[in-house]
Specification:
This is 16S rRNA (Guanine(966)-N(2))-methyltransferase RsmD. The protein is of the alpha/beta class and 194 residues long. It is 31% helix and 28% strand. The protein has a single domain, classed as 3-Layer(aba) Sandwich (Rossmann fold).
């Protein structure tokens, strides 16, 4: 079990499947959300949680003020678990209305069908997903983002940052033991020119 750390749904427990998921630790999630709150990118945003696992990242954002979260998890059993978690989180944050949707398909397929307007995206693929696949996913995601959006990419601290598509720039990287969090944003025209 893991739990939501802060906000309206603080303390809501999330069941962790026995196999196939690697939930972000409480310590890393706490640091991640402290950074996002200092960047002022949670309140009122639409969130996308790719390779969602338990959904902990998207639910933490909803608990702290996001208005919607779209969860993408390829494994159908895990996706149905996220659906159960969504009901518990929606109940916990009432009367604030939030919207949760869950898709059981690949991240690339899901991104292709999304409408623009995302303000915060979590990408936490299994560590063995190749960097080229992550870069292709980022390229597909670029036109779905608000100009000020933040994308948080979680990778092993042993792996280099995948080559970023021209649409993105690295804002910062934070290391926590085996975990690296890369904060990405859309590149400005000045970034593209240099």
């Amino acid at each position: 079990m893991t739990r939501i750390i802060a906000g309206d749904a603080r303390g809501v427990l999330l069941t962790v499947p026995k196999n196939g998921t690697r939930p972000t630790s409480d310590r890393v999630r706490e640091a991640l959300f402290s950074t996002l709150e200092s960047m002022n990118v949670i309140d009122g945003v639409e969130v996308l949680d790719l390779y969602a696992g338990t959904g902990a990242l998207g639910f933490e954002a909803l608990s702290r003020g996001a208005v919607s979260a779209h969860f993408v998890e390829k494994a159908p059993k895990v996706a149905s678990l996220i659906q159960r978690h969504a009901r518990a989180v929606e109940d916990a944050v009432k009367p604030r209305q939030v919207r949760c949707t869950v898709e059981s398909r690949s991240a690339v397929q899901a991104v292709a069908g999304l409408a623009p307007g995302l303000g915060l995206v979590f990408i936490d693929p299994p560590y063995d997903v190749p960097g080229a696949e992550v870069a292709a996913l980022l390229a597909a995601l670029a036109d779905k983002l608000e100009p000020w959006a933040i994308v948080v990419l979680e990778r092993s601290s042993r792996d280099p940052l995948p080559e970023l598509p021209a649409a993105f720039r690295l804002e910062r990287t934070k290391l926590y033991g085996e975990t690296a969090l890369h904060y990405l944003e859309l590149a400005s025209e000045e970034d593209a020119a240099s």
